[in-house]
Amino acid sequence: MGSLPSDIETFLSTNFTHLVIGGGTAGLVVATRLAENKDLVVGILEAGPLDYDDPRINVPGRFCETLDTDYDWQFATVPQPGLNGRAIPWARGKVVGGSSALNIMTWNRACKEDYDAWEELGNKGWGWDSLLPFFKKSETLHVSTKEHQTIHQSHCDPRFHGADGPIQTTYSTQYGASHQHWHQTLGSLGIDINRSHFSGSNVGAWTSLASIEPDRRERSYSASAYYRPNAGKPNLVLLTGATVQELLLESTNGEWVTKGARFTYQGEDHSVNVHGEIVVCAGSVQSPQMLELSGIGNPTILKEAGIEVKVDNPAVGENLQDHLMTCMVYEIDPSITTLESLRNDPVAAKEADFEYQTLRTGIRTTVPSSVAYLPFSHYLPHDHLKKLGNSMLSASTTTSSKREEILTRRFTHDQNLGQIEFNFDLGNYSPVFTSEPGKRYATMLQILQYPFSNGSVHIPPIVEKKEIGRRINADDKPLIDPKYYQGGGGSIDLEMMASGQKFANKI
Q1: pLDDT band, very low/low/confident/very high, at 465 (cuts 50, 70, 90)
Q2: To 10 degrees, the CA torsion angle through 74, 75, 79, 80?
Q3: How does 240-264 read in b/e, with b if 16+ C-beta sit within 10 Å?
Q4: Contact in structure between 220 and 167 (CB atoms under 8 Å)
Q5: Are 105 and 367 in contact (CB under 8 A)?
Q6: Ordered alpha helix ranges (H), 330-431
Q7: pTM
Q8: Is residue 388's pLDDT more than 90?
Q9: Position 2 confidence tier, pLDDT thresholds 50, 70, 90
Q10: Which residues partner with 86 through β-bridges?
Q11: Rounded to an integer, what distance in angstroms lies between the CA atom of residue 11 and that of residue 497?
Q12: Which of 147, 114, 175, 121 shows the shortest CA–CA distance to 369?
């Protein structure tokens, strides 16, 4: 089959044991791992195209150029009362590789306590000790030289990294002008350098590792690292341009069993049957959408969308959380070259592209790398945090979830966790502020790690009388409602972000 996707005839005639819905970040990992067993035949249905050669995907210094393009599903939230009615774009990858083809290539890991909390919630085998071998299995770390570590603080402990995994991770060879000041600046504010932020604590200041192939200086992601080396296997079949409309369920002995999937390809409906398992890997937005389109979910939501109820499960699409982010933009020395300035200077952009193509050096190799994770207690009194936590407990009902209990504990106990992230980089990242001609900017990104705001994602209802009788399908964009800054938990999120922003300005 080579490295090209299947044609529709081949795909429909293949006798699959497993079918993966979504050829994105997770889907390609699952599919290629399954295909290691030669007795299995694995199909992948992906709505987007396969593109190994687009520089907007591959070139590190062109990150974010794929947003709001055909590679992006271009979702947005419903208007958010907590944000004065604004709707926020939610980029999601519509391409083989999914959002790992769109992200900024930061390679990171949460704190040990975060994974142990998953296990505490009842997910046996999902704690730090169980997951660490799999984190390492996914990666090949390319350790920087001693000189590089001294100059750029590119520290890591190889014991907590992989040496022969598919994703290639490395440090940048070149950094923006601001990075040279990052660690000294944070040190003056009492923030130590974390020399091993993958070993169970991300707290402190560090230089970010990136998912970049070190020789070619190209993005390393699920399409290039997992699918491409395995694309020639006869038991791994990918069909691109295929939008799954629903899972095909059959009633067997009083239970619904998934037997296949219905999808559209070039405007026509097709169905594929599977003898084994179907794995839904459509991401945080489209996995619940897929379940609801298939009749699995809250009966009220399904009926309003014209969907037959097959499995009554009101949990589908609920408990949506998002890491809130703010952008503070600062004017900097206009002589400093930024990636943003290249977009407005064709001559400089051509020179940067030539350097990258011929030498694999220069500004086109750079990605955001100045990072710090801090506990709230670094800039807020512990007594105040404890008071906030207790207020959440007193407002909770006897049926409060274990998740809320764990989140609240992070206020009432003095835990050294990376509760908020600061990331400083050259360029204007704000979707609201428009750069002025001739000026250069840098942005302080601030991201909340443990939000209390809690929302949902669901398929939309049929609202117009003329549509009654039809069913909602995968082309009807889901209603994404993270409920930013809403409710009692949202008010805590707002206070933490406001306090963090004051500290970010101090940085």
Answers
A1: low
A2: -110
A3: bbbbbbbbbbeeeeeeeebbbbbbb
A4: yes
A5: yes
A6: 339-343, 346-359, 382-395, 402-412
A7: 0.94
A8: no
A9: very low
A10: 80
A11: 49
A12: 175
